[in-house]
């Protein structure tokens, strides 16, 4: 049964998206909101105004952006007379100014809807990512996470054990 599974069988057709002109703060907000319903959600699809795929931004890229913009070393070093709440609020305002361009994954791992599970797994291994976008034409249809593949694979394996 497992070898009959295709990307579309495992993909999540509801996934977070932002437009390419969104701020870093918007991507963080959208990711956080997505995690309310799907805690293992870890990628935001970035589209242009026409809905065409531009790229993606994942948790690691968001961490990198926050570290470079909000958690700068000079913001953390002080003589002990810093209002940390105000410092953090000021630093977070930086996020509202930053664009996604510098943190965008422009060639995200792509799957075709009918690709079998073994090719899906191969895509994860080759791309060294734990997610891939399911794309047909210019349209992103869904996202597959490595956890989805793991659940599918082990469902059959556990029965055999």
Automatic annotation (TrEMBL):
InterPro entries in the record: CBS_dom (IPR000644), CBS_dom_sf (IPR046342)
Matching CDD domains: CBS_pair_SF (cd02205)
Cross-referenced Pfam families: CBS
Domain CBS: 10-74, 104-160
Keyword hit for Ribonucleoprotein: no
Protein known as: CBS domain containing protein
Native source species: Pseudodesulfovibrio piezophilus (strain DSM 21447 / JCM 15486 / C1TLV30) (Desulfovibrio piezophilus)
Keyword RNA-binding: no
Keyword line: CBS domain
